[in-house]
Each structure stands twice: as structure tokens, then as C-alpha cells.
Design brief:
2 domains; alpha+beta; single chain; 10-stranded antiparallel β-sheet; binds calcium ion; Jelly Rolls; 10 strands; signal; extracellular matrix
Length: 275
């Protein structure tokens, strides 16, 4: 702009000096004025502030008689101006439509084992189990007594009054207990002695292993008793027997006096176990 202003001022001053007689000079002046107008009114008004006169040259001036110069050739086009500064960001646009779902990705790697969870609530009670085997299958016991006086000697005393013999391990025909379940057994007997002495022995497999002897006193009723614990194997037999002749066969029984013999399994023992 300052270059253009200089050119215009030069033309105007030339016009003043040359008296404005040449119409070509006037055309150049008008063209210059138009160019200034296109650049801005403020630029056009500047000459008035500086007191310059753009009116046609006065023929009465001394320079009116001078010869006008040949108009100069138009200058070259100036260099393109530099790019302007970037404008401010525009307003935010509306939200766009949702895009289509992408393809399913590949399965990820297996993760680490997590921490144990809290303890759960108790479950419902289970169904009732099947009926088990009878306890008698694992038990052996008997308790028997005499219903009358036994006079036989050197044979097993045959107890024929039964208090308990559900497993029938005591045989009232032979008068012997026969072991079915191997294990440890307890035997005990309580005998009433009357009219004569009593000497009995507890036998195991034809061998007397313990003895009880009571001397009878006249007009008295005596008692004789004994007990023992034995380890028995299946098939072993245990019984009571008068040990001696009839003089020691005082084992007695009536309606108000009993003589009893009892035995039961304390606990079973595996036959494979060493004794
Ligand atoms: Ca006695």
C-alpha cells in the first residue's frame, strides 16, 4: 500500500507540475484513484488529511505549458500474500448414527484361577438309606437257667430255661454254647446249691479251664458263682459240667431258686489277627 501511495503521489505531483493539460494524465489519475478506492476509503481520504489536491490541474498554473511525459509501463504483479491465520474451531456437530457392529473377535487366553468363594449354604438332607443288616448278625449272647434239678454228672448241664437266646448260639439239646462269631466273650454263672456239695467246671472244647466248689451246710441254701473272659474262634464250644461224681452234684433250682448261665460277645476279632 505504501508503494502504491508513493506512486499515486508521484503522479499527482507530476500533474501539478505539468499543469494537468494532458488528458492521458487525467485518465491515469482517475485510474489511480479507483485503485485506491478498491483498497479502502480510508486510504483514499488520506491525501485530503495531508492537504493534497486531487482536482484537475489548473491551466493557469505555470506548469500548464509544459510537455507531458510518456506514461510509464504498468508494474509487475506483486507477490501473493502470505496465508492467513487459521480460523477458530467451528461449533460441535450433532452426534452421528451408530455404526454397525464389528465381527466377533477371537477367544481370549484362559485367565488365572480366581480366589475361593465363600462357603455355601448347607444342602438338603439326603434320602433315607436302605435298611441295614440286623444287629443280631454281629451279636452273640445268651442267658439261660435251670427249670429243675440236674442230677446227671460228667455231662454238660443242660439249661432249659431261656432268658435270652435269640441267636440260638446256646444249644439246649447239647447244653453247649457254640461260637459263631470269632471274638472275645464273657461268661458268668450263678448257681444255687442245695442238699449237697456242688463242684462245677467251665469247659472249653472238652477241657475244664476253671472250677467252682461249694460245701453245702444243712438247712442252708448256698450259692456258687464264677465268671471268665475267653477268646474264642468259630466252632469253639463252652459249657458247664459237674466236675466229679454225684456227691458234688448239688446244683439246684425250683420255682424260687434259679441257677443261671450267661455269656455274650464283648467284641469280635478278625480271625487273621495273631493271637
Ligand atoms: Ca457253702
Amino acid at each position: 500500500m505504501s508503494l502504491l501511495r508513493t506512486i499515486i503521489l508521484g503522479i499527482i505531483l507530476t500533474g501539478h507540475l505539468c499543469g494537468g493539460q494532458d488528458e492521458l494524465l487525467e485518465d491515469s489519475l482517475e485510474t489511480a484513484v479507483d485503485e485506491v478506492a478498491t483498497e479502502g476509503i480510508e486510504e483514499l481520504e488520506e491525501p485530503e488529511e495531508e492537504g493534497l489536491d486531487l482536482s484537475p490541474p489548473d491551466d493557469r498554473q505555470p506548469c500548464a505549458m509544459w510537455m507531458g511525459g510518456v506514461p510509464g509501463t504498468p508494474g509487475h504483479s506483486g507477490k501473493p500474500g502470505r496465508d492467513g491465520r487459521d480460523g477458530r474451531d467451528g461449533p460441535r456437530g450433532e452426534k452421528g448414527d451408530q455404526g454397525e457392529a464389528g465381527e466377533k473377535g477371537d477367544p481370549g487366553e484362559k485367565g488365572d484361577i480366581g480366589n475361593a468363594g465363600p462357603r455355601g449354604f448347607p444342602g438338603n438332607p439326603g434320602l433315607k438309606g436302605a435298611r441295614g443288616e440286623s444287629a443280631s448278625s454281629y451279636h452273640s449272647a445268651f442267658s439261660v437257667g435251670l427249670s429243675e434239678i440236674v442230677s446227671a454228672t460228667n455231662v454238660p448241664i443242660r439249661f432249659n430255661k431261656f432268658f435270652y437266646n435269640d441267636q440260638h448260639h446256646y444249644d439246649d439239646v447239647s447244653g453247649k454254647f457254640r461260637c459263631v462269631l470269632p471274638g472275645v466273650y464273657f461268661f458268668t454263672y450263678h448257681l444255687t446249691v442245695y442238699t449237697k456239695d456242688a463242684k462245677v467246671s467251665l469247659y472249653k472244647n472238652d477241657k475244664a479251664i476253671m472250677f467252682t466248689y461249694d460245701q453245702y451246710q444243712e438247712t442252708n441254701v448256698d450259692q456258687a458263682s464264677g465268671s471268665v473272659i475267653l477268646r474264642l474262634e468259630a466252632g469253639d464250644e463252652v459249657w458247664l459240667q459237674v466236675y466229679g461224681d454225684e456227691t458234688v452234684g448239688g446244683v439246684y433250682a425250683d420255682n424260687t431258686n434259679d441257677s443261671t448261665f450267661s455269656g455274650f460277645l464283648l467284641y469280635p476279632v478278625n480271625p487273621a489277627e495273631r493271637r
